[in-house]
Write a structure and sequence with these properties.
With 547 residues, this protein is α+β, with helices and mostly antiparallel strands. The protein has 17 helices and 21 strands.
Length: 547
C-alpha cells in the first residue's frame, strides 16, 4: 500500500501529537492497568457497515471492522511495508522474473471456530472475489494475477487462474506482469480469506450477523445491532493474541457530531473524529490529544455523463471551475484538508518524487470562465435553461455543510439553483453504483502505493462494466492500459501524467480537496496505528494505559 503522506503535509497541518505503535513487541504493563481491569476501547464508527463480506465490501466503514476481525498474508504496520511474519504468512519467495510468489503459512493458525486456516481457504476466497457470479466491485484489485481478469470476464475457468494451493501450508501465485506492490496488495481487504467450508455452508447469509462469519484476526464480532452499534471482543484463537491487549472494542453509529463530542467530553468515548468546527475546541485541551492526519483521500464531484446536461464537457468544467476550494477547506472544513487541483493526492511516488509534485496543478478556479463555459455548453446542447439538477451527498453533518457550500458556489458564480439530496452512506453508495444521480459528492483513497490506484478508475470499462460516471476516452484508455502492462517506471509515470491531464481537461470528475482527519483521543489510549490509505485505523496494538 502507498507510503504515508506526513511529509507532504507537514508544513500545512498542525500535528498536536503522534500515537503510533510498533508492529511487533508487547506494550509494557502499567500500574494503572491491572490484569483484572478490562481493556475496552470505545469509539464512534459513525455509520452502519454496508457489507462485511471482504470479497464484496467496498467502503471504508466496513474496511475498519473487517481489518479488525480478519487477517491476510501480511498485516501492514505503521511503516506501511509488508513484513514477513506480520500476518498469516511466515515467509515467501519471489522468482527472479517477479512473476511467481510462493507463500508459506504459519503453523498452528486457526479460524475462530477452531478449524485450521489453510492455503486452500486463500485459493477459494481469491477466486471467489474474481468469480463473475460474486459481482465484486473490487475484483480488479486482483487483476495483476495471471488470468484473473479473463476469469472475471468469463473467458477462462477458475482452474486457469494463477492461484493454487500446493498443500495446506503453501500458496503459489503467478502474475501477468511484474507488480512491485503485489505484497502490499495482499493486505488489502479483498484479499482477506474466508473459511471455504463455512462460506459453502451459509451461502448468501455470509457476514450478515455475528454468527455468519468466522474470524482470523485479532477480534471477533460479539454483537451487531444494526444502525446502532457493534461490539468486538478479543479472538482467543488468533495466532498473535498475546500481543493484543484490548479485550473489547465498542463501536457506535452516531452521525450527529454534537452528540459525539458531548459523549467524548462526558467520558463515553476514548477516540472520536471531529469536523473542523471542533478543532479549535481541542487544540489546547489539557484532557485530550488532538491529532490531524492526512488520510490519503481525494474528495471530488462525479458527473453522470449519461445525463443530458453533464454529457457536455464544457458544462462539467463550468460546475468544477466555479467552486472556491480554498474557501471550502479553510472556512467550511477547517480540518487540515487542502485544495485539490488534480486527482492523485500527495504522497504517491512518481519518477523521482511525489507524483502530484511532478505533475503539478492541472486547473484553477475561474468563476468568469466558468460562466462562459456554461453558456458555451448550453449553446452546444441547444438549450436556454438547465433542467432540474440534484447534488447527491451523504447525510452526515459535514457532508451537509459541504454540499450546501457547493450549492451556494453554483448559485453565486453560475446563477444555477441545484437541489441537494442527502442520504445515508449505504444508500449513496448504491445510487452512485447504479448511476442514479446527476452529480455526486464522493471520495476515493489509494489502495496501494502507485498512482494507478486512482487512474485506472476511469477506464472505459472496469471488470467488464463502465466506470461509475460512464466516462470514455480512447486516448485515456490507451495510456492507462499501456502503463498497466509495463514494468518501465518512467513510461508508466509519463503515461499516467498525460492521462491525468486528459482527465482534468474532460473533467468527468472535479477534484475538490485532499482530505485530512482530525482525531481527538483520551491521553490514556496508546498504540493506535493509523494509515494514510486503505484502512484508517488498526487497533491490534492499541491498549489502555489508564482508564
Amino acid at each position: 500500500m502507498k507510503i504515508k503522506v506526513f511529509a507532504a503535509f507537514v508544513s500545512l497541518l498542525f500535528i498536536i501529537s503522534t500515537v503510533l505503535a510498533g508492529c511487533s513487541g508487547q506494550p509494557a504493563k502499567t500500574a494503572s492497568s491491572p490484569e483484572t481491569e478490562k481493556q475496552i476501547l470505545r469509539i464512534n464508527l459513525g455509520e452502519e457497515p454496508p457489507r462485511l463480506d471482504p470479497q464484496t465490501s467496498t467502503d471504508g466503514v466496513s474496511f475498519q471492522v473487517l481489518n479488525a476481525v480478519l487477517e491476510g498474508l501480511v498485516r501492514l504496520g505503521p511503516d506501511e511495508k509488508p513484513q514477513k511474519g506480520s500476518g498469516l504468512a511466515k515467509d515467501w519467495k519471489i522468482s527472479e522474473d517477479g512473476l511467481t510468489y510462493t507463500f508459506y503459512l504459519k503453523d498452528n493458525i486457526y479460524w475462530s471456530d477452531g478449524n485450521p486456516i489453510t492455503a486452500y481457504d486463500f485459493e477459494y476466497s481469491w477466486k471467489r472475489a474474481l468469480d463473475p457470479k460474486t459481482a465484486s466491485d473490487y475484483a480488479y484489485i486482483m487483476f495483476p494475477i495471471k488470468n484473473a481478469e479473463k476469469f472475471n470476464a468469463g473467458e477462462v475457468s477458475a482452474d486457469e487462474v494463477g492461484i493454487k494451493a500446493l498443500d495446506e501450508k503453501t500458496l503459489e501465485v503467478q502474475l501477468e506482469e511484474p507488480t512491485p506492490y503485489f505484497l502490499s496488495l495482499t493486505a488489502f481487504i479483498t484479499y482477506l480469506p474466508l473459511e471455504k467450508s463455512f462460506v459453502e455452508k451459509v451461502g448468501d447469509k455470509i457476514a450478515t450477523t455475528p454468527d455468519t462469519l468466522v474470524y482470523s484476526g485479532p477480534f471477533i464480532i460479539k454483537e451487531w445491532n444494526h444502525e446502532q452499534n457493534i461490539i468486538l471482543v478479543k479472538n482467543d484463537k488468533y495466532w498473535d493474541k498475546d500481543n493484543v491487549k484490548l479485550d473489547e472494542i465498542h463501536m457506535d453509529m452516531i452521525k450527529d457530531m454534537n452528540t459525539v463530542v458531548q459523549n467524548f467530553d462526558n467520558g463515553q468515548y476514548d477516540i472520536i473524529t471531529v469536523t473542523g468546527d471542533f478543532v479549535e475546541r481541542y487544540k489546547n485541551n489539557p484532557n485530550a490529544e488532538l491529532q490531524i492526519y492526512p488520510n490519503g483521500f481525494t474528495y471530488f464531484l462525479a458527473f453522470n455523463t449519461k445525463n443530458p446536461v453533464f454529457k457536455n464537457a464544457n458544462i462539467r468544467k463550468a460546475f468544477g471551475l466555479s467552486i472556491d476550494r480554498k474557501q471550502l477547506t479553510e472556512n467550511v472544513l477547517k480540518d487540515g484538508s487542502i485544495p485539490a487541483y488534480g486527482f492523485v493526492p500527495y504522497g504517491i511516488p512518481g519518477k523521482n518524487e511525489e507524483f502530484r509534485k511532478e505533475v503539478g496543478n492541472l486547473f484553477t478556479e475561474d468563476p468568469v470562465k466558468a460562466k462562459e463555459l456554461l453558456q458555451k455548453g448550453m449553446n452546444e446542447l441547444g438549450i436556454t435553461s438547465l433542467p432540474k439538477i440534484t447534488l447527491l451527498a451523504d447525510d452526515t453533518e459535514v457532508a451537509k455543510r459541504e454540499s450546501q457550500a457547493i450549492q451556494e458556489f453554483w448559485k453565486k458564480n453560475l446563477g444555477v439553483n441545484v437541489e441537494i439530496q442527502n442520504v445515508p452512506f449505504k444508500i449513496r453508495l448504491q445510487m452512485y453504483k447504479q448511476g442514479d444521480f446527476d452529480v455526486v459528492l464522493t471520495r476515493w483513497g489509494a489502495d496501494y502505493n502507485d498512482p494507478m490506484t486512482f487512474m485506472d478508475l476511469w477506464l472505459s470499462e472496469i471488470s467488464g462494466e463502465p466506470n461509475r460516471v460512464f466516462y470514455s476516452n480512447p486516448e485515456y484508455d490507451k495510456l492507462i492500459l499501456e502503463a498497466k502492462k509495463s514494468n518501465d517506471n518512467n513510461l508508466r509515470m509519463d503515461n499516467m501524467k498525460k492521462a491525468e491531464q486528459i482527465l482534468m481537461e474532460d473533467m468527468p470528475i472535479s477534484p475538490l480537496f485532499f482530505s485530512a482527519t482530525a482525531y481527538v483521543q483520551q491521553k490514556y489510549v496508546k498504540g493506535v496505528v493509523r494509515h494514510a490509505v486503505g484502512v484508517d485505523n488498526d487497533w491490534k496494538w492499541t491498549y489502555i494505559e489508564k482508564h
